[in-house]
Design goal:
Elements: H1 3-13, E1 26-29, E2 38-44, H2 47-55, E3 60-65, H3 79-89, E4 93-96, H4 99-113, E5 117-121, E6 129-138, H5 139-150, E7 156-158, E8 163-173, H6 178-181, E9 187-191, H7 197-204, E10 207-210, H8 218-228, E11 234-237
Parallel strand pairs: 2-3, 2-11, 3-4, 8-9, 9-10
Antiparallel strand pairs: 1-4, 5-6, 6-8, 7-10
């Protein structure tokens, strides 16, 4: 199967027209006419994941996070330059679906992991989602529930509420959307929150929960399941371990 055909299937689910203006979804490197027998899916387009794809004998790497955002000078002494050099040398096609996937699937998958019902868009860009928990929970019960749902050892939180029934979620960095989402929910779950985001928890009388960026790794298995129904290639999952560790 040609890489071009796989890209068309990806874009039938996640059109490039859905990405944010600042984003760079789509082909990152490689020849679209490459014959693909094996695909790796990973969260990040980084050197570690690329090496995994090479070692696994893949001809294509599909990721959520792209490595290209700005104008590029191809300097092979930099990490991005080495990434492109290695991808070309090993004839690996690299494709990323970032905010295009965020709008259509990512946050719905995260909401479903929490068991939420009545899922709908929660902001003008259609990235964040909101929904209702299957049962109303106390605050600490909800925090434990989130940790278990996303298989993470801890969360950071700000604010204090008696009960949580309605939830908003934005995988990745959703701090800029607090003002839009907070009035609609009891708790807003996102990642990469800044110190002063905590003030808004009391401003809006909600619970802010920072689960980190890596919960988006849910897309690796979910996208694999989706593509296996339509693509006649072997598909494998990258380890995608995340960059930060607790100590």
């Amino acid at each position: 199967m040609k890489a071009e055909q796989i890209i068309k299937i990806m874009e039938s689910h996640y059109p490039l027209s859905c990405q944010e203006d600042w984003d760079h979804c789509g082909l990152q490197a490689g020849n679209i006419h490459t014959e693909v027998n094996k695909i790796m899916i990973g969260l990040d387009a980084d050197l570690q994941t690329l090496q995994e794809a090479i070692d696994a004998g893949c001809q294509m790497l599909i990721t959520h996070h792209p490595f290209l955002f700005n104008t590029l000078t191809l300097d092979t002494t930099t990490p991005i330059g080495r990434f492109i050099e290695k991808a070309i040398k090993h004839n690996i096609v690299v494709y990323s679906a970032h905010t295009s996937l965020d709008k259509i699937s990512m946050n719905r998958w995260l909401m479903e992991a929490l068991g939420c019902l009545n899922i709908e868009d929660a902001d003008e860009s259609n990235i964040t989602k909101k929904g209702v928990l299957p049962d109303t929970m106390g605050m600490y019960e909800f925090l434990d529930y989130v940790k278990k749902a996303f298989n993470i050892p801890s969360v950071n939180y700000a604010g204090k509420v008696k009960e949580v029934s309605t939830v908003g979620i934005c995988g990745g960095s959703g701090g800029d959307l607090i003002d839009e989402v907070a009035p609609q929910v009891d708790a807003y779950v996102t990642g990469d929150l800044k110190y002063h985001s905590g003030l808004k928890a009391s401003d809006y009388n909600i619970l802010l929960v920072d689960v980190g960026h890596h919960v988006e790794v849910i897309m690796v298995h979910k996208l694999k399941e989706l593509l296996e129904k339509e693509i006649d290639c072997e598909i494998v999952e990258a380890t995608s371990p995340g960059y930060f560790k607790g100590y």
